[in-house]
Every structure is written in C-alpha cells, then in structure tokens.
Write a structure and sequence with these properties.
alpha+beta; Endonuclease III, domain 1; Nucleoside Triphosphate Pyrophosphohydrolase; four-stranded mixed β-sheet; three-stranded antiparallel β-sheet
Length: about 375
C-alpha cells in the first residue's frame, strides 16, 4: 500500500505502521490509563492531558479515579468535590464539561460511553481529538486523533507546510491519519503517534537518530525537520495587576470568596482580590479604597508580604499579596466565608491562590 505525495516522494504505509507500532509496544511509557482500555478512564486521561504535561497528570489521574472510579460516581458527585479533585490542573471548564457530559452518558446511554463518532462528538467538551482518542484507544475504531503532537509529527514525516495554528489545517492532518492509520490496531497506532511526538519528535531538537520511522520521514531526508511544523505566533499575553489580601478575623479564621459562576476560574475560591488599574500610582491607600469600592470590605491592610506571577494562556497575573484584618464584616451570602486552616482543605482554590496562601503561611512561620 503506497501513499503518493505531491512532491513525488512515496511512503510505504505498511512498513510505516509496522515500524511505528513495534517501537511503541517495546518502548511505551507505563502510564496508569494504559493499564486497561476502559473508555471512561481513557476519556478522563485525555481531558486531563489537554494543556497539561503527562508527569503532572499522573497523580491527578490516580486520585480522580480513586475518588470517582466509575461514570456513576462522577455523575452523582458534588461539583465542589469535583473541582477539589481537579485543583491545580487549571482550565477548570474542562472538568465542568466532563461532568456534564458524564451525566448525559449516565442518563442517555445507560452509563456506557458511546462508540460512534456522531454520538460521542455530541457530548459537551468532546472535540474531534478527544472523540478520536476514545474511539481508537478504547474501542479499536480507526478514527484520527489529531492534536499538536500529531500535527508536528506528520508535518515532518509527510513534509506538510500548512500552518498548524490555523483551524483549517486540522482537516489536512486528519485526512493524512485516515490514510496512514492501522485498521488492525488503531489503538496502538494513535497512541504511538502521540508517544512519538512526546518523546522523540519534539518541538525543538527532535531526536531523529533515535526515531523508529526516520526512514519514512521526508523532512529528515531533505534536512528540513527543524523548519517544521509551520506555526504562527500566539497573540501577545495581557498583563493584569492585582492586589490580594489574606484577611483574618479576631479568631484567626481566613476570609475567602467564591468567584462568579462564569468566566475565568468560575466557581473556584479565592482570597479577596481587586484589580489595580494604575499600578505606577498605586499605594496602600489606593488598594484599601479599591477593596472598599468593589468588594465593600473595610480592611485594616497590613504589609505586602510578596508578589506572585501566574501565566494563563492569554493572561499574566501579577498579584501583590497583603496581610489584613477585618472587623464587623458578616458574610451576607454563600460566596463569602470565614474558614479555619483545617476547613480550607475542603475548598478548591486555583493555582495562583494556592501560591498566595503558601506565601502567607511562609510569612506566618517566619514571625
């Protein structure tokens, strides 16, 4: 079986499949979601692996499956506990969509993850890549699973110069996978493509001399592997200046606030925070005034104990961290709470506020 390329090069598909899958079966990493082909576990792992490194995901995956071992467990769980299980992974809309989709699977498909492209793609948060990964890995259906890793690998192997940052390019790479994928073992094929991109065919300095499919790689033979893939630069990150206060009452309980139910970090907990619009003119009184104006908090603001940075995909938060005290503040809604240090463990905080809390604890330990 031969696939013709526009540049008159040829790739022997059978040999490519054999070399790739043989390498994968010999060299694949021991990852917890590979221990069986449970569609639910494959699904959870693929959602976690979006925008997150494998080494980071492993302990989260193990804990998540421990807490929610089946679709029924996740469908019936309180959102607060689900967010707590996800705490630190970021991109929290991923897990909200996952739980919504799991509820639909429980109700509509009797808790069995659907095994057709049409049904699985209709689930919330399941895009073409996730659908293809579940269908191929768990069900052995030869569907493409094309992410950035796979596009990078194929751009080199087949010398595809389409800009992988453009959404329209995905169709080109999906067609390429359909031409190349093993119909006998699509599960190993797609996982091997992902593994190759993660371990060998890396974004910079690909390890071509270790590559199991080097003999099939047109870019390597032409010496242009470093030029691929073609990818336009991202939009510049926006800097946001914030002030956060770790505020205690007279009993040593800490004031926390629940973020709105939509937007960035929705429904997660934070310490009282305001945006500083004129950082060059900022002083303590301005920060106090901002807390009073926007949060109706009359603070006795303490010292600045440090500053943290946190990078989102499109934002950079610079947070000045203060200590503070408040008197006569009675939370009037469930969005505000005074909690003890022990009780704080029950609430899900995004990473920037975990950093804020660690900074405050370090300050307390040094006093």
């Amino acid at each position: 079986m031969i696939i013709e390329q526009e540049n008159s090069e040829k790739i022997n598909i059978s040999a490519f499949q054999n070399d790739l899958i043989s390498w994968f079966k010999a060299e694949q990493r021991d990852l917890p979601w590979r221990k069986d082909q449970d569609p639910y576990k494959v699904w959870v792992s693929e959602i976690m692996l979006q925008q997150t490194r494998v080494d980071t995901v492993i302990p989260y995956f193990n804990r998540f499956i421990d807490w929610f071992p089946t679709i029924e467990h996740l469908a019936e769980a309180e959102e607060e506990k689900v967010l707590k299980a996800w705490e630190g992974l970021g991109y929290y809309s991923r897990v909200r969509n996952l739980q919504s989709a799991v509820k639909e699977v429980k109700e509509k498909y009797n808790s069995k993850v659907p095994n057709t492209p049409e049904e699985i793609s209709s689930l919330k948060g399941v895009g073409p890549y996730t659908a293809g990964a579940i269908l191929s890995i768990a069900y052995g259906i030869p569907e493409p699973a094309v992410d950035g890793n796979v596009m990078r690998v194929l751009s080199r192997i087949l010398l595809i110069r389409e800009d992988i940052a453009k959404a329209s390019s995905r169709k080109i790479f999906e067609k390429a996978v359909r031409d190349l994928i093993s119909h006998e073992d699509p599960s190993s094929f797609n996982q091997a493509m992902m593994e190759l991109g993660a371990l060998i065919c890396t974004p910079t300095s690909p390890s071509c001399l270790l590559c199991p499919v080097r003999e099939h790689c047109i870019a390597f033979h032409e010496g242009v592997q470093q030029e691929l893939p073609v990818k336009t630069r991202k939009v510049k990150t926006k800097n946001v200046q914030l002030a956060a206060a770790v505020v205690e009452d007279e009993h040593g309980n800490i004031l926390i606030h629940k973020r709105p139910s939509n937007g960035l970090l929705a429904n997660l907990w934070e310490f009282p925070t305001v945006e500083i619009h004129h950082p060059l003119q900022s002083d303590r009184q301005q920060v106090v005034d901002l807390f009073r104006e926007f949060l109706n908090l009359d603070l006795g603001l303490g010292q600045i104990i440090g500053q943290i940075e946190h990078v989102f995909s499109h934002l950079l938060w610079n947070i000045k961290v203060y200590t503070g005290a408040v008197k006569n503040f009675i939370p009037e809604s469930e969005d505000w709470k005074f909690v003890s240090l022990e009780e704080m463990k029950e609430y899900a905080f995004p990473v920037p506020y975990q950093k804020v809390f660690k900074l405050s604890q370090k300050q307390n330990d040094s006093e």
